[in-house]
Design the sequence.
């Protein structure tokens, strides 16, 4: 019985030594197989100033099904570009950050309160959220009447400012300058023609006087 217990005790000792050797820190450094690099994430909003930032839920009208369909719940923003001063409406879903709406706020935009719900607004827009321009009818719902009012007033304010800027755009200014330049050149041509015509008349009078003499 004693002889059979000895090998078992020896095996247990070897196992303990092996475990201790595995747990021992050798100081060796193992390089990772794949080296991950830090990647900068851009949203496309880096060159824009935030004019409005509110939580809301967005719907689009499905013409085929003749019903409203939810586009997502998240944050709606009005963003003004730092260089062009153009303003766009962008809304992303809260969790996935997927774009629900993405279109310019044009002077022609008409935003109205949804009938029967003073927390919602509706408007038409040419949207680019799905990667292609599409005419959409949107409805947005806020948690409070105050937020809905702030959104509506801000959109209307931006639309008016965009209308004013479109009238004072560089294209319009350059066209006006060109027309003014053409007008000045025409007046100069007329001034040049007048002395020439007067000279012709004087020459004709002189010839007539010579004939009479």
Sequence:
């Amino acid at each position: 019985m004693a002889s059979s217990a000895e090998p078992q005790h020896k095996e247990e000792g070897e196992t303990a030594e092996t475990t201790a050797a595995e747990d021992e820190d050798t100081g060796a450094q193992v390089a990772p197989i794949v080296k991950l690099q830090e990647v900068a994430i851009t949203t496309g909003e880096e060159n824009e100033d935030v004019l409005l930032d509110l939580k809301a839920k967005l719907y689009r009208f499905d013409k085929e099904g003749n019903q409203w369909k939810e586009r997502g719940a998240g944050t709606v923003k009005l963003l003004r570009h730092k260089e062009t001063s153009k303003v766009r409406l962008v809304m992303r879903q809260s969790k996935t950050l997927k774009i629900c709406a993405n279109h310019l706020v044009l002077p022609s935009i008409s935003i109205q309160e949804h009938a029967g719900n003073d927390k919602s607004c509706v408007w038409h827009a040419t949207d680019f959220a799905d990667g292609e321009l599409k005419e959409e009818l949107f409805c947005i719902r806020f948690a409070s009447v105050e937020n809905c009012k702030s959104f509506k007033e801000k959109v209307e304010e931006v639309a008016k400012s965009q209308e004013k800027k479109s009238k004072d755009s560089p294209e319009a200014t350059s066209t006006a300058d060109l027309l003014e330049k053409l007008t000045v050149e025409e007046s100069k041509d007329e001034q040049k023609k007048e002395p020439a015509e007067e000279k012709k008349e004087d020459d004709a009078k002189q010839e007539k006087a010579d004939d009479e003499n």
Q: What stands out?
A: The beta strands are 48-62, 67-81, 87-93, 99-104, 111-113, 120-127, 134-141. DSSP finds three helices and seven strands in the chain. The helical segments are 2-23, 145-167, 170-212. The longest helix spans residues 170-212.
